[in-house]
């Protein structure tokens, strides 16, 4: 029987969800683009923004000049293609590759906006779960991506399914680094802690977290756990803090990732910063707490 | 045609028509229709009811647009008499008609070409719930220097950050390496999980050197399992629904765990020094069965601790290190 140790007392409610992206172990502190990065996995509870994070971080990395392959490992409920607006271009999937119906490069969907970003889906929706699909298939996939002629991609992002079932276990097989996506609420926190426990049992030690849908106004009113509270409860390094933003829904429905929005949005910029930390293998040293009241000038009374 | 009206009607419901003006509108419409019919000598085109409905709506729109309602009625009265004003009236009423017909034609087209698969992106676009012009074709944001975003500026004192023109206060992250390690240790105790490394199907015994936690059982109705010749479909079906008592895999896992536990206990028997003396003393108490001994315990706990004088336990020794073994010996008979 599992015994849960009581977490540090915290009066504020907190939400959390987890997402883990795969990342290479190679240290890459420079801004030069000569990095060879390995697969990462976004992992989390359902509805916390795993797929959104994968899409945005992936495209941010691509815009920074890295070659990125994003794998939608959410076999039953895949959505990454919709978020990227690539749903009409997915003709072949990994299942067809494994069946020998097509080559791997035919199944990779190249984004027209940034040609160094590629998407790979595991299977088509409504198709039956592939029989032979397991962790070994993903390991094979990652190996063949690394050894292809164009060269090893800098980042392989694997969008994990929610939960800790077989699909999740399969998805984390080939990962060596994880990004946990969570929202600051207690349900997400508990799930995230368990997910991190599983990852650590499986040998993935490099885990960072992104706290999504943070509202500074609610934190100020003590209606939401602060990011630092979340960190205290989970003990994970912070990769990013994404504020709640209505633009996220709009960009999802448009099939146009937030980070590409012009003019940029707050959440988009936060994703961009997170992507940059991923490159630098860095974590946050300080978090945004609240909006500072504007300094009032001498004439502000008169509305100047 | 009825479908046309039903599709296009909701478009007009949004016009804020007050009850009074609606009444006026219907009256107006009636007059208008009479005027048209008069104009065509009742022969040209008998418009169907649908058009009449639309007429009501269109004139309602006209009411909203032209707020001069009173002058409108007087105009209407004049209109029947004067051919010039009749022509003017036709001109003013014609554009809405054209508009209605166009809408009707368009929606009819949509009805016919509705796709067979509802819920697809193409279908959502057709139904107007998604905008086709906005799916992945707008111009993306490109930075001149992506490594230096002008919209994110850290303040001079590193305590503020300016994003999108708003200044936010920064709080330093306080998590230390030690705290991270503490959390890792906590999790490693709380969540114990092993990736399954051995796959067994129903009927396979668990090999003795395998940890039962790492076994994943392939269900009997799994395609891999059924390719094995020794499992027939009937057996697989019956196993799935667990009609015959405890499923095999649970039994096998239980037995393997039992063996593991026994092995652990045997090891413990060999090195008894592991058992701490305080706990061993705790275990002694329940074994004092007879009433005399209990009385003695109540009367003189010190005596009972030593236990030397008790005839019921002649083999007992005061040495606490041997106490656990003595209690085991007591259990045997």
TrEMBL record, chain A:
Keywords: ATP-binding, Cell cycle, Cell division, Nucleotide-binding, Septation
GO CC, any one term: cytosol
A GO term, aspect molecular function: ATP binding
One of the GO BP terms on file: cell division
Positions of region (Disordered): 1-49
SUPFAM superfamilies: P-loop containing nucleoside triphosphate hydrolases
Residues covered by the CobQ/CobB/MinD/ParA nucleotide binding domain: 45-257
Ranges of compositional bias, category Polar residues: 11-20, 28-38
Alphabetized InterPro entries for the sequence: CobQ/CobB/MinD/ParA_Nub-bd_dom, MinD, MinD_FleN, P-loop_NTPase, ParA/MinD_ATPase
Residue positions binding ATP: 45-52
Any Pfam family the entry gives: CbiA
PANTHER family reported for this sequence: SEPTUM SITE-DETERMINING PROTEIN MIND HOMOLOG, CHLOROPLASTIC (PTHR43384:SF6), SEPTUM SITE-DETERMINING PROTEIN MIND HOMOLOG, CHLOROPLASTIC-RELATED (PTHR43384)
Function comment: ATPase required for the correct placement of the division site.
Family: Belongs to the ParA family. MinD subfamily.
Designated name of the protein: Putative septum site-determining protein MinD
From TrEMBL, chain B:
GO terms for cellular component: chloroplast inner membrane
Residues covered by region (Disordered): 292-333
Biological processes annotated in GO: chloroplast fission
Low complexity bias spans: 323-333
InterPro entries named in the record: MCD1
Biased composition (Polar residues): 300-309
PANTHER family, per the entry: PROTEIN MULTIPLE CHLOROPLAST DIVISION SITE 1
Name of the protein described by the UniProt record: PROTEIN MULTIPLE CHLOROPLAST DIVISION SITE 1
């Amino acid at each position: 029987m599992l015994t849960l140790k009581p977490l540090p007392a915290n009066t504020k409610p907190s939400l959390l969800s987890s997402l883990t992206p795969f990342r290479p172990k190679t240290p890459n502190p420079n801004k030069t683009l000569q990095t060879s990065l390995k697969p990462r996995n976004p992992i989390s509870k359902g509805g916390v923004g795993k797929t959104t994070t994968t899409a945005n971080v992936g495209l941010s990395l691509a815009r920074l000049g890295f070659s990125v392959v994003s794998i939608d490992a959410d076999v039953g409920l895949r959505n990454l293609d919709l978020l990227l607006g690539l749903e009409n271009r997915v003709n072949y999937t990994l299942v067809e590759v494994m069946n020998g119906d097509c080559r791997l490069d035919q199944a990779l969907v190249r984004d027209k906006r940034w040609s160094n970003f590629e998407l790979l889906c595991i299977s088509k929706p409504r198709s039956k779960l592939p029989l032979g699909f397991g962790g070994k298939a993903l390991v094979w996939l990652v190996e063949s991506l690394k050894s292809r002629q164009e060269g090893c991609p800098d980042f392989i992002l694997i969008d994990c399914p929610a939960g800790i079932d077989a699909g999740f276990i399969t998805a984390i097989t080939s990962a060596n680094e994880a990004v946990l996506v969570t929202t600051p609420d207690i349900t997400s926190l508990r799930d995230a802690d368990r997910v991190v426990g599983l990852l650590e049992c499986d040998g993935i030690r490099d885990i960072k977290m992104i706290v999504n849908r943070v509202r500074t106004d609610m934190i100020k009113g003590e209606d939401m756990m602060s990011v630092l509270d979340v960190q205290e409860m989970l003990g994970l390094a912070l990769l990013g803090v994404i504020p709640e933003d209505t633009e996220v829904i709009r960009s999802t429905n448009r099939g146009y990732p937030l980070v590409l929005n012009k003019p940029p949005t707050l959440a988009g910029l936060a994703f961009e910063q997170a992507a940059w930390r991923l490159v630098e293998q860095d974590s946050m040293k300080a978090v945004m707490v609240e909006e500072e009241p504007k300094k009032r000038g001498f004439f502000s009374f008169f509305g100047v | 045609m009825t479908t046309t009206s039903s599709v296009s009607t909701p478009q007009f419901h949004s016009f804020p028509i007050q009850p009074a003006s609606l009444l006026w509108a219907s009256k107006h419409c009636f007059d208008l229709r009479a005027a048209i019919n008069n104009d065509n000598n009742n022969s040209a085109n008998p418009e169907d009811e649908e058009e009449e409905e639309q007429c009501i709506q269109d004139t309602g729109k006209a009411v909203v647009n032209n707020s001069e309602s009173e002058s409108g009625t007087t105009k209407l009265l004049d209109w029947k008499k004067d051919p010039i004003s009749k022509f003017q009236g036709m001109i003013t009423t014609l554009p809405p008609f054209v508009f209605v017909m166009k809408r009707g034609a368009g929606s009819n087209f949509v009805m016919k070409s509705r796709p067979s698969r509802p819920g697809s992106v193409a279908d959502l676009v057709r139904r107007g719930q998604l905008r086709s012009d906005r799916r992945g074709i707008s111009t993306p944001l490109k930075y001149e220097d992506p490594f230096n975003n002008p919209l994110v500026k850290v303040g001079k004192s590193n305590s503020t950050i300016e994003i999108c023109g708003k200044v936010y206060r920064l709080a330093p992250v306080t998590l230390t390496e030690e705290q991270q390690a503490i959390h890792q240790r906590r999790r490693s105790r709380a969540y114990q999980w092993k990736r399954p490394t051995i796959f067994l199907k129903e009927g396979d015994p668990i090999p003795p050197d395998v940890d039962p936690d790492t076994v994943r059982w392939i269900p009997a109705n799994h395609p891999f399992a059924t390719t094995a010749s020794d499992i027939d479909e009937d057996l697989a079906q019956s196993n799935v629904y667990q009609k015959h008592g405890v499923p095999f895999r649970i039994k096998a896992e239980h037995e393997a765990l039992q063996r593991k536990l026994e092995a652990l206990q045997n090891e413990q028997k060999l090195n008894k020094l592991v058992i701490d003396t305080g706990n061993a003393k705790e275990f002694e108490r329940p074994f004092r069965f007879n009433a005399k001994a209990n009385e003695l315990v109540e009367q003189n706990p010190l005596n009972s601790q030593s236990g030397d004088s008790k005839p019921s336990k002649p083999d007992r020794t005061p040495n606490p290190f041997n106490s656990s073994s003595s209690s085991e010996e007591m259990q045997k008979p």
